[in-house]
Design a protein that fits this description.
Chains A, B: This is Magnesium transporter MgtE. Two copies of one chain form a homodimer. Chain A has about 450 residues and is mainly alpha-helical. Helix content of chain A is about 65%, strand content about 5%. The first copy, chain A, has 23 helices and six strands. In chain A, strand 1, helix 12 and strand 2 form a beta-alpha-beta unit.
């Protein structure tokens, strides 16, 4: 995107500090001159560099449409605190302006009292009715994602009557992808594209030109399932129906992209052992708070491992070389476990309609583990054997290490494959099976196997 | 999505085996009866369960529009081999049928000779011109993502002339989101929505009703940048212009969703140390081949660690308790490093326009590390101190372990933060900084620090 094409707002650190000075001096002229006409998404980026009160000041100056979009764009985790700076009287114009799905997202972050007050102050009865309807849906289902703004036409209408309806709703429904065709009871029957409307003659009946083949989702469907349907069939929008088949709202693709990106980020954080939704530019305190829990769990695991190894300190004392291979064992277990769980997570995210049975997948996992384990154990054995140069203790170490390594690969593969599957069936986020938790368990199992084998070989 | 709404094709293992028998017996009647009228995305799911020759047989039987979509849906990595089963004469009807962006994706997977033959056999000159134009763009830029099918209207046309254009292109341009407004030299000037066209009167000029404010991207822009622009501004479609500002094509949101999902999967695989794009249901051989490289590197790292620790085997022999804390040290280093690199990766993926300087970020990282390191080292010290019960050797171990733990947290944080940033600046995928590579380096550094501190404390 270049400046030739469009007036792109150029954001820089210099501008931000001038803006802050302008806010402090209440220099409205500067603010309006530089920000008026700038796209909401760009204004949002500027506001990310300011604190809450500064943002509030700016939003009160700009057009209410821009302000509404900016509030909508603010990251959900930070928005709760930000909204508390506004009184219900100040918030309701923004809520009037937004599409019902975005309005509801914001209302859900208010305390119940503030929410009721904002709703009571809404200028448009229709918007009030919309948000009260949508508020009853949980956040993570189709009903929680959908907006009520859409254009529906009756099966028996003519094209010219439908165009009247488009005109009537032109202001409220910003992006019209398709018209939904319903019967007298609002039951969804099909769709008709604007292209068809344009090309048809005025008196044609909708019933003659509409497309009966229409995909829809029900209000209670999980949001990630909605996302996968829209992705699979390449849809920009999908209608939502209630249990009686009546048209309840529509979900647009921009919300789905958000669902997909949030899920990917959430999973990545879980796999890294970060327990809250934080970013690098959060405060030191917030970052520590999000990172410590898993680190503490890892530390407890390490202390347990130390106690466990302590049982073998006689062996370690006599054969210190035994101890030197512990990092190899635990690191290999960790890497194998991570690979296995990552593959399973990928499968769970993109389920093929026909899944191999659990036994079949386990069997394949073990086969791959046998292959990989043999290669790794083989190389390590070769290395140790050559270093030992015939020394019997060295040979015993070679056998111990390679046997344990092979077993650890088998164990870690199995754990790494089975744990996410089991968690998924128990409705726990399977990404928890990756990362620090699995590595601790693998470490302890690996050490157990290693010293167990050592005992067998040496005694 | 329920069967009440639409005739959803129900896929089951039983059906697949009956289908395979039908193919073997060339029972065309069964195949057409069960698959005719089924959506292409669902047919693709069926075909995923069949082998190449079986797929080819079915595609030859179904409508060419369905066949074209199915070929388009096949995973890119598997499609190359699949396309080799078709002769140029068999392929060109599908290429005729597809939108130019999808047609080019497929043509790029053919050998040059086959590609030229297919193009020469295309029935439509326009399609041939389109694909030859698009073939010169690299795959990962806007030019490689775009399609040439779009509807453009001249600034000086009337609404009724524009509707004529829509009618003329109705078959070729399946989804019309918006009309692009150009001048006599094809330079992009703006856009006008179908909604506006519908509501305007016939003789209104486009110049009176079009929207000048239009976002566009240039043909050479990186695909991930295009994706982030479309996501930021909530666009379903974006026009692509060449260096002279002339309209060259358009990119639709379904392609962007694919870019986003592929990137997330690619990163996840890299972080797990899987070196190829594999899935759980690939063959044992393919899976092993993708997993072994990193496991071998990890193994080499473990052997290096063993040799390194071997330098201290005198210490270990005398004070075996020292060795028992090695898993704690390496595990903590691993967890901390993973958290740090994960946060940086997230930042790199969603760059704020104004980035804190590198020094500032490093400073914050170290502050968080000091905080976390102190907490962890503190707890471990407490635990060891209590277990030691006054024993001087136990006290020394407590001091050694906690000092080393604290240092390891600092080191791993720094490594985990700096490495992805450095790699990103060197244009290497920073996700490589996570996963097995970083854990090996952290392990070695951690062991070095640990035994170094032990020497200081004990001697």
């Amino acid at each position: 995107m270049t400046k030739r094409q469009v007036d792109v707002f150029e954001l820089s650190a210099g501008y931000v500090s001038r803006l802050r000075k302008a806010i402090a001096k209440e220099d409205k002229e500067f603010i309006l001159r530089t920000l008026k006409g700038v796209k909401a998404a760009d204004v949002s980026e500027v506001l990310e560099e300011l604190d809450g009160e500064e943002c509030r000041y700016i939003l009160q100056l700009l057009d209410v449409e821009v302000g509404a979009q900016v509030i909508r764009d603010i990251d959900e985790d930070e928005r709760g605190d930000f909204l508390e700076l506004f009184s219900p009287e100040e918030l309701s114009p923004f809520i009037d302006e937004l599409d019902s799905d975005d309005a509801v997202d914001i209302l859900q972050q208010l305390g119940v009292r503030a929410r009721e007050q904002v709703i009571s102050l809404l200028k448009e009865d229709e918007q009030a009715a919309y948000v009260m309807d949508l508020l009853r849906y949980g956040e993570d289902c189709a009903g929680g994602l959908m907006a009520k703004e859409l254009i529906k036409v009756n099966l028996n209408w003519t094209v010219v009557r439908s165009i009247e309806e488009i005109r009537r709703q032109a202001e409220d429904v910003d992006k019209v992808y398709t018209l939904y065709v319903v019967d007298d009871y609002d039951k969804l029957l099909g769709r008709v594209s604007l292209k068809r409307i344009i090309l048809a003659s005025d008196q044609t009946l909708i019933s003659e030109i509409y497309e009966k083949d229409i995909l829809s989702v029900e209000t209670f469907m999980d949001q990630e399932e909605v996302a996968s349907i829209m992705q699979k069939y390449d849809l920009e929008v999908i209608p939502v129906v209630n249990v009686r088949g009546m048209l309840a709202g529509r979900i647009t693709v921009d919300d789905i992209i958000d669902v997909i990106t949030e899920k990917a980020e959430e999973d990545r954080q879980i796999m890294a052992g970060i327990s809250e939704d934080v970013q690098e530019d959060d405060s030191v305190w917030v970052l520590s708070r999000a990172r410590l829990p898993w680190l503490m769990i890892g530390m407890i695991g390490g202390v347990i491992a130390a106690n466990f190894m302590g049982l073998f300190d006689g062996d370690i004392s006599q054969i210190p070389a035994l101890a030197t291979f512990v990092p190899l064992i635990t690191a290999t277990g960790g890497n194998v476990g991570l690979q296995s769980s990552s593959l399973v997570l990928q499968s769970l995210a993109n389920p093929s309609v026909i899944e191999d049975s659990l036994w079949k997948r386990l069997f394949k996992t073990l086969t791959v583990a046998i292959l990989n384990g043999s290669v790794l154990a083989g190389f390590v054995f070769l290395f140790n054997w050559l270093s030992a140069g015939g020394d019997p203790q060295g040979m015993k170490i070679a056998v111990t290490v390679s046997t344990a390594l092979f077993s650890v690969v088998m164990l870690a593969s199995t754990m790494g494959t089975v744990t996410p599957i089991v968690m998924d069936r128990l409705k726990i986020n399977p990404a928890l099976a990756s990362g620090p938790f699995i590595t601790i368990v693998n470490d302890l199992l690996g050490l157990g196997v290693y010293f167990g084998v050592a005992h067998l070989v040496f005694y």
